[in-house]
Each structure stands twice: as structure tokens, then as C-alpha cells.
Design goal:
By secondary structure, the chain is mainly α. The chain folds into two domains: about 130 residues, Helix Hairpins (Orthogonal Bundle), CATH 1.10.287.1490; about 70 residues, no CATH class. Helix content is about 75%, strand content about 5%. The chain starts with a helix and ends in a 9-residue tail after the last strand.
Length: about 240
């Protein structure tokens, strides 16, 4: 049991140092991901805007052509007014003229709406392009900082991970399972030394019988409150 406890203590030391190396990277990995995601989103939104602008341009050309046709019809009807001989014919032509004039007004409204939408989308597109360029610059800086920090730690990290890989295959599966579960639940700390008759992880007092077993070092003992493995960091702890 003493061997298992020593293995768990060593595993905790390795994991703690690995956590420190990861923490040294700070928020750089997340910053890189955020910038990459934002740049991708801006690009996708701009592609949608470009498609919208093209579609509106088609509508504007189509409606402009429609207005030309309607204007030609009105001109034709106005010319025919001078040739009619009955009130009925005159009323029919004026009705057609009024109908086409309204159609021109409605079509002009559609053109103005499309032009307004295009103006807004072009402004948004330009702003997004500017934002993307700024984010690309920041992304390059963040990647460079991340690369430098990773290079500083990669050798030590690789060594620690190799030691951990060798160690975990030696630890009985049931203890390793508890270690991993507690470590995940207790902010990375699954093995804690006894300090002043209490678990140094949760600071709850350990009952006398368990303290005796911990000092004897012939059992693997866990804290009744937080589940951490307990050990004596200093043989003189009992006398404090």
C-alpha cells in the first residue's frame, strides 16, 4: 500500500506541474480560437452580404427596365388620347395611364428599397472587412506569443507526460479511477498532505483512527469530506 500511495503522490506532482505549464499559456489558446472564429464568422456574413447585393442589383436592373417599358406605354397612351373620338375610349386610356403611373411609383419604391439595402450592406461589408483585418493582426500576434510560450515549455511538458504515461500503468485501476474522479471534481488536487490533523485540501479535521492509519503508512486513506487521498508530508507532522 505504501508503494501505491507513493505512486499517487508522484502522479499528483506530475499533474500539478503539467497544470502549471498549461496555466502559463494563459488565455492565449482561447484567444487564438476566438479570433479564428470571429474572422470566419465575418467572412461568412460578408459572403451573405455580397450575395444580397448582387441579388438587389439584378432587381434594380429588372425594375429599371420595367419602368422604361411602363414609361413607353404611358407615352403611347398619351399620344392616343388625341385620336380618340368617344368618352369611353378616353376614359379607358386615362385609366391605363393612371394604372401604369402607379406601377412606376411602386417600382421606384422597390428600387429605392433595394438601393438602401445595398448601401447598408456595403457599409456593413466595409466595416466587417476592417474588423477582420484588425483581428487578423491580433491573431498573428496571439499565435506568435503562443508559439513562443509553447516552445519554452514543450521539452519539460513532454518529459512530464512521458513519466506520467509510465507511472499510470503501474497504479491499480481502482485507485487510478478514484484519483481521476476526485482530481476532476476538486480543481486538480486529488492527493493532499495531512496538516495539523486536517486534510490540507478541504481543511476538515481527520478523525483520530484515520490519522493513526495515515502515520502508519500501511493503508491508502481518503478524506471523509472531499475524497482526496491523504498522506504525511513530514514525518515530524505528528509531533506538531
Amino acid at each position: 500500500m505504501q508503494k501505491v500511495l507513493q505512486q499517487l503522490i508522484l502522479l499528483q506532482e506530475l499533474d500539478t506541474r503539467l497544470d502549471e505549464l498549461i496555466e502559463k499559456l494563459g488565455d492565449l489558446p482561447e484567444t487564438v480560437k476566438t479570433f479564428e472564429k470571429q474572422i470566419k464568422n465575418e467572412k461568412e456574413q460578408n459572403e451573405i452580404r455580397i450575395t444580397g447585393i448582387k441579388e438587389n442589383d439584378v432587381l434594380i436592373r429588372s425594375n429599371s427596365a420595367k419602368i422604361e417599358d411602363l414609361t413607353a406605354k404611358i407615352k403611347k397612351y398619351n399620344e392616343q388620347l388625341f385620336l380618340v373620338t368617344t368618352n369611353r375610349e378616353y376614359d379607358a386610356l386615362t385609366t391605363e395611364i393612371e394604372f401604369n403611373e402607379k406601377a412606376i411609383k411602386d417600382t421606384n419604391d422597390l428600387i429605392q428599397q433595394s438601393e438602401k439595402e445595398n448601401k447598408n450592406m456595403k457599409e456593413a461589408h466595409s466595416k466587417a472587412e476592417q474588423n477582420s483585418e484588425e483581428m487578423k493582426t491580433k491573431l498573428v500576434e496571439a499565435k506568435e506569443s503562443l508559439a513562443v510560450t509553447e516552445k519554452e515549455t514543450e521539452k519539460e511538458k513532454a518529459g512530464l507526460e512521458e513519466k506520467k504515461k509510465t507511472l499510470i500503468v503501474q497504479i491499480p485501476r481502482n485507485y487510478l479511477s478514484v484519483y481521476q474522479r476526485v482530481r476532476k471534481a476538486r480543481h486538480g488536487l486529488a492527493v493532499a498532505p495531512l496538516m495539523r490533523d486536517a486534510c490540507s485540501g478541504c481543511h476538515n479535521r481527520v478523525i483520530p483512527q484515520k490519522r493513526v492509519d495515515i502515520y502508519k503508512k500501511n493503508q491508502v486513506i481518503t478524506c471523509d469530506f472531499c475524497g482526496r487521498f491523504l498522506y504525511v508530508a513530514n514525518d515530524n507532522e505528528e509531533d506538531e
